[in-house]
Structures are given as C-alpha cells and as structure tokens.
Amino acid sequence: MLALSSDYASGEALSSNNSLPPDFVEWYNSNKNKSGYMEYENFLKSENAYDVFPTWQLLLTDTEYLSPFCKSEKFVLPPKKYWKNSVKTIKFIKKNIIPKIGKVRIVSGFRPSEFNKCIGGASKSKH
Q1: What is the distance of C-alpha 49 from the center of its chain?
Q2: What is the DSSP letter of 17?
Q3: How far is CA 23 from CA 2, 47, 60, 78, 118, in A?
Q4: Rg of the chain over CA atoms, in angstroms?
Q5: Beta-strand relationship, 105-108 and 3-5
Q6: Which of 11, 50, 84, 108 could pair with 45 in a Cys bridge, judged by C-beta atoms 3.0 to 4.6 Å apart?
Q7: Residue 41 contacts residue 14 (beta carbons within 8 Å)
Q8: 23 Cβ partners below 8 Å, 6+ apart?
Q9: What is the DSSP letter of 52?
Q10: To which H or E segment does residue 84 belong?
Q11: pLDDT tens digits along 15-46
Q12: Is 0.90 surpassed by the pTM of this model?
C-alpha cells in the first residue's frame, strides 16, 4: 500500500540527481545495498511503472509517524516479494487517481513490520 498526498512535491529519479532530497542522497550513499536499489528501479522500468513517481518516494517508510518511540530508517527498500504488489498499486494510481485529481506524492511506501506494529498500524497492512 502507498499512502498519498495530493500536494505534489517534484522529484527526479536517481539517475538525474538534481531534485533528490538530501536525506535520500545520504541514505543511498551509505546504503550497502545499492545494487538492490538499482535492481528495484530496473524492475519498475521493466513493468512500465518507473516514471509515475520518483523511486525515492516509494522507499519512504512513513513521513508522518517516524519518532523516537517508533524507530525505522526513513527509506527502506521493500523485500522482493512485495515488488509486484507495488507495481499493481502504482499502475492503479496512474490509471485511476492521477487523471481525476492530478499529480500526487507518496508519503508512505513500505513499512517494516516492527515499525508498523509500533505505530499501531493494521496487522494485515500491506505497507
């Protein structure tokens, strides 16, 4: 599941480093799984789901609930078993939501289960 906001914040894919948030650039540069990130981007490209949102937004844990009590990295690469689900959601948003309300931005992408439980998220949440 992706949580959205209609106040669109422009962003770019990693390959065009111009508008990337500094905290994402820091996460990417310190991330030991850069190849996993690139594999995710290539997967999105192969599924025609790459240019709907900046990839960094798909990796947001949850911009509303990060706190000292419920800790998580701000950006988390989802496990591969969820990649197909995110493509379905991205395509649904592209086809059904954006044409009706315009551009949207993601405020919550993948939530690790421990973080989801800590913030009181639904136990069957698909974040």
Answers
A1: 12
A2: G
A3: 20, 27, 11, 18, 23
A4: 14
A5: antiparallel
A6: 50
A7: yes
A8: 74, 75
A9: S
A10: helix 83-92
A11: 444 588 998 888 888 877 788 899 999 999 99
A12: no
